[in-house]
Fold these 2 entries.
Entry 1:
Amino acid sequence: MFIPVKKSEDRKENYGLLLEHLPYYINADEPFWTTLANAAAVIDYFLDDVNWVGFYLLEKDTLYLGPFQGLAACTRIKMGHGVCGQAALKQETMLIEDVAAFPGHITCDAASKSEIVVPLVKNGRLFGVLDVDSPSLNRFSSMDRVYLEKVAAILVDIL
Ligand code: SME
């Protein structure tokens, strides 16, 4: 059962709460899709001004839609395509201030204006990506990068 935690007005404090609470909702002895389903919900709960939070998971050379919160989305993304495919290919976080200015951006929810994608990499092996979209331009900062990479590290540790 998810016990709603009182959120702060401060994004950094909310990230602290997210990192504190996430481990209670994931278990190393359960399938990774179960872990990622709860992770998507917990991340969505603690972040403000976001309209899509979810995972794309690598199978051969394609990223397939995994657990998420938000509107229905495209089901597959080729490696190197879109923001997700670029983050996966480079195995590095992509922080996009304005998705309309990113060549090859794949629109799933037309409301999305900015986006951050963090790869899930364990021992050099790519599992997939965490994708977070916002309806506001320039929503994400280096602070989001730092904390979402910490979230990704917690997740890959038990995948
Ligand atoms: N915008 C992403 C596609 C996924 S959706 O935003 C959920 C991209 O360009 O890779």
Entry 2:
Amino acid sequence: MQPHTEHTEHRAARPTWRHDGIAFGCDYNPEQWDPEVWPEDVRLMREAGVDLVAINIFGWSQVNPRKGTFDFAALDTVMDLLADAGIRVNLGTATASPPPWLTTLHPEILPVADDGTTRYPGGRQAWCPSSPVFRRYALALVEQVADRYGSHPNVELWHVSNELGCHNALCHCVESTASFRRWLEQRYGTIAELNRAWGTSFWSQRYDDWAEILTPMRTLSTRNPGQVLDFHRFSSEELLGYYRAEAEVIRARSTAPITTNFMVTAHIRNLDYFSWAPEMDVVANDHYLDNRLADPTTELAFAADLTRGIAGGAPWILMETSTSAVNWQPHNIAKARGEMTRNAAQHIARGADGICFFQWRASAQGSEKFHSALLPHAGTDSDVWREVVELGALLDRLDEVTGTRVVADTAVLFSWDAWWATDADNRPSHSVEYLEQVHAAYTALRATGASVDVVHPDADLSGYRLVVVPALYSVTDSAAANLESFVAAGGTTLVTFYSGIVDEHDRVRLGGYPGAFAELLGIRVEEFAPLRPGDEARLASGATAKLWAEHLALTTAEAIDAFVDGPVPGVPAVTRNEHGSGAAWYLATAPDAADYRGLVARIADEAGVGRPVGAGPEVEILRRAGDGRSYVFAINHGAEPVVIDATGFDLVTTGSVDGDATVPGYGIRIIREEAA
Ligand code: GLA
């Protein structure tokens, strides 16, 4: 995959993250424990092979116990213990959560929800991203931390705050409102331009002055979609500005690389990480299996592929994950034995050069006491600990993989802008959610065995054979032109329904759907015809379709499949259009998983996409390569053993493989390829 040029330019002048091999790390919160426990912690970290530890993440109330007082004695001790043990440090700036003295002294820093009510301290991250007062205190703390440890030789990486925007991304307080107005003024220049962008002639919403504009507060009816969309953009940029401010303070005092932990995950959507990534010295992501979803393992794969996409293809760090259950889902499912290792392999196969966990030792108190850890409540006589030690040894053997890049010949386009715009208050069907449609397409593609990059719609697509565009409702002219040139030059695309409908202002592209892609796809849609929840339609091929249908007419495309019944019997449901030297397919409905997979497999074969022997819905096979090295990762999530093609040395079993290798049920193989 070609990195964004933007990434390369930004990165050039800045430090890069270097670790000796694949990092094995964790969050360490020694402040929750008696100092007598610390030497034992460090001894066990060494036993497990942990070599990168994040500390001082939630340290504010400890290192700055009251206004103007700083006490680094405990942190100094922990720093020394880790340095003496040869364990590198990922140093938190401690600003993740303000201490009670600060919110007592300055309650105006507290965030305000869209109904105007304050969110109080007592949990975490109770601060407004636009608050100048919060920023003043936070940066004063960062100065202290960076002055003290900025040239410490054991600081490998700086960890700004923690999961910025996890809880506080959207604030509606007076400071946020003022800042939103300033942002809008910069974006639009004149109030007339803002009125045009938001379509405020509708429902008498015309603004006469910037001072009349509010953040999208809770209303009686549905809110202006342009205002909501811009508020998302503003909120993402506002927190990025905050990150930048902390990073500047550190940069002036340290040459170590700086990052923060992203949340590329299914349930958080407030930050546009494509715009954040160029400002990170290394991209780091937190990912937890989400057992509320139908297929958490595939969501993990998608999130990891997307993390690599936002990193421009460069290696990245899994900054947090869990050894077993989390504590914040309604039902916190423990991992099966071996699942943690498979999950870790999934991330490494997708470009992670570090696997870190939340957290080192399971807490005895506080909200997260039932969250799993490397060292569980049960102690070292536990299956979790034994698997942790085995994982540490495996990661050591994988050190040679570091720096290689994932090889993929298909891409899925993804956009936070489209996510925010699609899931608006009013839309043709509330059963059509952006991420679900992206996941459905990705699931079908992954199940065919294809290796998938998840990239921004403006990314360089020239290296791909197939580009899938799921439900890209909102698309800019430049992104539409990007896809068109890819196909004209011989690429194959599959665009799915509810794509190309509006521009970046959520303004409908007139003249028939799918607006931006109508010519490329050789079709014209007069009207949507969504299905009721639970209803199904049949296609001529025998496929079952749900959620969506539309009054579609062919202009230059041919019909490949058609609705037999449902709201539009006889109307094409799958079309194919030759365009330039390539082909543009369109899917006008949501097929069942097996039918979706069949369609995508057909298109992948037509496009010449690589589909390794043995890969399928339960078996992932990916390749990382570079500098003359090449590694095949095979991860079997099913009970049945599977045979794959490979020749070389297996870093899991430490044995040679000649021509083929069996991946046991629920097992993994990671093979350094050698010519047969
Ligand atoms: C996030 C946070 C951690 C912890 C974990 C629990 O990743 O960054 O502090 O709360 O979730 O899963």
